[in-house]
């Protein structure tokens, strides 16, 4: 068991730079949180450099927060707990942890004990040796149900690889390692935590994103937060990712191209109607083609206007955090 200790008794001075931040978002993991922290502490006891552990309590309604607070002041590392006002989702939990992290490197884990923290030292060595900015875990021997977890995951991973162009096997693995200065350049909103490699690829070449095989354990306590419905959400999120990867800086180009296409077809229809009206003397007032041309013209104006508004919003610096913090708990609170 971890023993409580005052900050002055830790192995490293508070002023020393932190080498590694370990980030674990948790939601209703009361049976797992204590054992998870103990395993992380044991896995990193020989790291030789200061490190910190950040738990983000994502609106848990069980004893997760109270059990985590009992671990504050444990020796050898700095534990902080970010308490959300309500449940905001895993993406918001990761983003809050990225914002708060002080380490040169940031490692993320799921809070259900299925990821193995003993893989972290190996991942640090691999990231430095291969000179990567991000290293993703690959659950090659995944311990999950075939129909509800594995097959949907394989399908989603194949779709994500083909669309984003970032060729890793396991987008959904919670065990990942980042260089802090890189991951802090992106923001993870909504359910977009599944696509973090794609977001990272928007700021660095995809060749600086790698993967390595990691251990994976069957869930021992609690229930999974994911089901078959996640596959359909992934498909919808993937469309948003494709848009942001290609048009994030210039969304006006996306809407503008659609608007110009609508406008071009509308112009051709109006030209034909003018020829019919004045060249052949036919009545065009009741023709369906006139209605279609008018609708396309209005659609063109709407798309171009939407593009202009999107450009204005893309250049706004007033982005919302996407989460609300009730309190940050540490050894002194």
Plain-language structure description:
Helices cover 42% and strands 13% of the residues. It is of the alpha/beta class and 333 residues long. The chain has an eight-stranded mixed β-sheet, sandwiched between helices. Strand 1 (20-26), helix 1 (33-43) and strand 2 (51-57) form a beta-alpha-beta unit. Mean pLDDT is 84; it is low at 4-14.
Strand and helix layout:
Elements: E1 20-26, H1 33-43, E2 51-57, H2 64-69, E3 78-84, H3 90-100, E4 105-108, H4 120-129, E5 134-138, H5 146-164, E6 176-179, H6 180-183, H7 196-200, E7 209-213, H8 229-247, H9 251-279, H10 288-314, E8 325-329
Parallel strand pairs: 1-2, 1-4, 2-3, 5-7
Antiparallel strand pairs: 3-8, 4-6, 5-6
Quick structural overview:
The protein has 333 residues and is α/β, with parallel strands linked by helices.
Give the tags:
alpha/beta, 10 helices, elongated, 333 residues, eight-stranded mixed β-sheet
**Backbone structural class:** alpha/beta
Largest sheet report: 8 strands, mixed
Physical arrangement of strands within the biggest beta sheet = 7-5-6-4-1-2-3-8
SSE order: EHEHEHEHEHEHHEHHHE
Helicity range? 40-55%
The DSSP helix count reads 10
Q: In one word, what is the shape? A: elongated
* Percent of residues in beta strands: 5-15%
Terminal Cα separation, in Å? Answer: 21 Å
Unreliable spans are: 4-14
Mean pLDDT across all amino acids: 84
Rg, alpha carbons? 25 Å
How many strands appear in the DSSP assignment?
8
């Amino acid at each position: 068991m971890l023993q409580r200790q005052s900050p002055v008794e830790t192995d490293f001075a508070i002023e020393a730079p932190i080498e590694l931040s370990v980030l674990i978002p948790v939601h209703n993991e009361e049976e797992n949180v204590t054992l998870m922290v103990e395993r992380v502490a044991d896995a990193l006891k020989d790291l030789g450099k200061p490190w910190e552990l950040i738990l983000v309590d994502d609106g848990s309604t069980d004893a997760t927060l109270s059990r985590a607070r009992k671990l504050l002041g444990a020796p050898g590392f700095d534990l902080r707990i970010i308490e959300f006002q309500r449940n905001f989702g895993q993406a918001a939990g990761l983003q809050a942890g990225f914002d708060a992290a002080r380490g040169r490197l940031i490692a993320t884990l799921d809070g259900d004990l299925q990821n193995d923290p003993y893989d972290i030292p190996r991942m640090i060595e691999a990231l430095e040796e291969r000179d990567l900015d991000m290293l993703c875990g690959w659950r090659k021997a995944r311990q999950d149900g075939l129909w509800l977890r594995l097959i949907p995951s394989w399908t989603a991973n194949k779709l994500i690889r083909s669309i984003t162009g970032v060729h890793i096997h396991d987008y959904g693995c919670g065990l990942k390692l980042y260089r802090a200065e890189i991951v802090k350049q992106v923001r993870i909103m909504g359910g977009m935590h599944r696509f973090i490699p794609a977001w990272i690829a928007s700021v660095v070449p995809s060749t600086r994103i790698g993967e390595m095989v990691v251990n994976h354990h069957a869930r021992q306590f609690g229930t999974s937060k994911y089901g078959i419905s996640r596959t359909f959400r992934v498909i919808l999120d993937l469309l948003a990712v494709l848009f942001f990867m290609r048009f994030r800086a210039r969304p006006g180009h996306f809407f503008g191209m659609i608007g110009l296409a609508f406008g071009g077809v509308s112009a051709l229809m109006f030209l034909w109607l003018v020829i019919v009206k004045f060249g052949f003397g036919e009545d065009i007032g009741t023709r369906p083609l006139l209605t279609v041309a008018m609708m396309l013209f209005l659609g063109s104006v709407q798309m171009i206007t939407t593009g202009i508004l999107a450009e204005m919003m893309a250049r706004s610096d007033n982005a919302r955090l996407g989460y609300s913090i009730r309190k940050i708990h540490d050894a002194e609170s």
